[in-house]
Amino acid sequence: MAARQLHRLSALRVAKEVTPGHYADGGGLYMQIADSGARSWVFRFKLNKRVREMGLGPLSRVSLGEARKLATGYREMVRDQIDPILARREQQRRQLLNISGDANVTFREAAEAYIRAQETEWRNRKHAQQWSNTLKTYAFPVIGDVRVRDIDTAMIVRIL
Fold first, then answer.
1. Which of 56, 114, 130, 146 is the least crowded, having the fewest Cβ atoms under 10 Å away?
2. Chain center to CA of 100
């Protein structure tokens, strides 16, 4: 049986490839090119008899070397029976809680921190812009400068 090969992609191939599809680098790391031409990194893994796919970010923000480092860490998690998707969500949740743990943090500050934490998960910058615009239009005028701990149901109802 042949050994699985890592680092099959070169920086030159990553830069020049334009045909839609998945291109294996090895060890579950793939460069994905969508029909629209959007290019991103994907980590595929199998845990508890379930195949999962995890986005690592667009090529414009995540280099080949960074994607390989991320995939290495995630492969170790899978080997230890830890779901990397759930682990990443938990880490983001903790980061958000650390920000909101400050008694004086406003809704605006917490929302902006959330958007920054989620940006790498979203497929494009437009998604982050849509979140920002929606919050500016509807939520910030009502609770933007209110401390997170002071927000109540009535304020949320006013926003809705």
1. 130
2. 20
What does pTM read for this prediction? 0.61
| Residue 3 or residue 10, greater confidence | 10
At residue 19, what are phi and psi to the nearest 5 degrees? -75, 130
Sheet holding 29-33, edge to edge: 21-26, 29-33, 39-47, 50-58
* Contact by Cβ (8 Å): 113, 101: no
Residues contacting 99, CB < 8 A, separation 6+: 105, 109, 110, 113
Domains in the chain: ranges and CATH: 11-81 (3.30.160.390), 89-159 (1.10.150.130)
* 123 pLDDT tier (thresholds 50, 70, 90): confident
CB 85 within 8 A of CB 51: no
- CA–chain centroid gap for 29, Å, is 15
CA-CA distance, 85 to 67, in Å (whole number)? 15
CA distance 34 to 14: 14
Which string of b and e fits 22-37 if b means at least 16 CB within 10 Å? ebebebbbbbbbeeee
